[in-house]
Design a protein that fits this description.
single chain, mainly alpha, Rossmann fold, two-stranded parallel ribbon
Length: 99
């Protein structure tokens, strides 16, 4: 099984994306086989963009959102709440398989 780092925190603006962005840039600079993903993104704007996804794509010179994001929701809230406001749910098994 490959090595993995899971970055989490209990609130928005806690620094998760900042840490991930700098970590992935450092790893890629050292030519490590690494990829930063944001499996669930909440807080998608009217254009369908998410600032965190944009930052992580840029840091890795990637362009397709689907390369790092499994699903996203409009509401900036906990994933379960954001999903329910759109009448959706997140299947944990499918999410884990995607990751």
């Amino acid at each position: 099984m490959p090595n993995a780092v899971f970055i989490t925190a209990t609130d928005t603006d806690a620094g998760k994306t900042w840490v991930t962005n700098h970590l992935i840039q450092s790893l890629l600079k050292e030519r490590a086989n690494a990829k930063a993903i944001k499996p669930i993104a909440c807080g998608v704007d009217a254009n369908g963009d998410n600032a965190d996804i944009k930052k992580l794509l840029h840091a890795q010179s990637l362009y397709q959102v689907s390369n790092i994001n499994y699903c996203s929701f409009n509401k900036a809230a906990a994933p379960s709440i954001a999903a329910s406001t759109e009448g959706k749910s997140i299947d944990p098994k499918n999410l884990v398989e995607w990751c």
